[in-house]
Protein 1
Amino acid sequence: MMDADLALQKAIYARLADDAALAAFVGARIYDNVPGDTGFPYLTLGEATVDDWSDGGAAGAEHRLAFNAYTRGGGRAEAKAIMGAVNAALHDADLTLDGHHLVNLRFIAAETRREADGATWRGTIRFRAVTERITA
């Protein structure tokens, strides 16, 4: 299952990094690990969980993924716009995964909130995906 999770992460990152609408907001600032000197706004690959979704004939996995948009100058509206671009790029996307088939990738929830520093807004958008291992 973990190889499916990594294959999904790579395909999602490639899709987001190649998305012009998202780049208009964050440029190339899409991170798994955020460098210490990163400017705002930026997007992070957030929490990810994977559960067994196998049936009698195919090995499968259910993935729950979160992405976090961080902004300062643009506030809540900018965080929502970034999440909108992420949703447009990923909801029902037809992604190619190494060794796995993406059955579906769907938006499930979003939220925005001000961080404890009082200046940063974080928008979190969540997705659910199902993958199946490709067998030869």
Protein 2
Amino acid sequence: MELISAERRSELLRSARTILKVELRDNYDVDVETFNAWRAGQSIEADVRIWGERAAARVAAGIVARRVKVVSEPLSDYHRFILEASKHVIDAGEEMRWLPRRRVSAVPLPGNDFFVLDGEIVIFNVFGGADQRAEIQFTQDPEVVKLCSTAFDTAWTLATPYGEYRAGS
């Protein structure tokens, strides 16, 4: 695996035509102000609208973006927040599915969150214990691409589309 910078990761994501992503963690480092506002029951509309604008720009450019969120149930506060906040991204055309962790016990998944870009590149986000990204790994190894593509396809098939997902179902 080659280690790459966040800037290189962004370049690769911007140049991809198909982005498949699997997220495996129950918590991520997020904007504290927005998250705390949501926890306090305040509107976060203005803060998360930009997510939808970015997704709309990708979709308008012909980019296919699909994401599977493997989640523990009951949902963490982070995932309850994301379930509500992702509406703009979904409305813009990104596809997202939710997969309860209990349904993937026999599914071979890589140990880290990953992207498959255009069926040729895999990027792993490796996280530390405080939910911060520790490193970004890059590979074009055909066996790793195949492993991750197959894992994504299996997870996608088992997962529930965003609009149909109900925690605990």
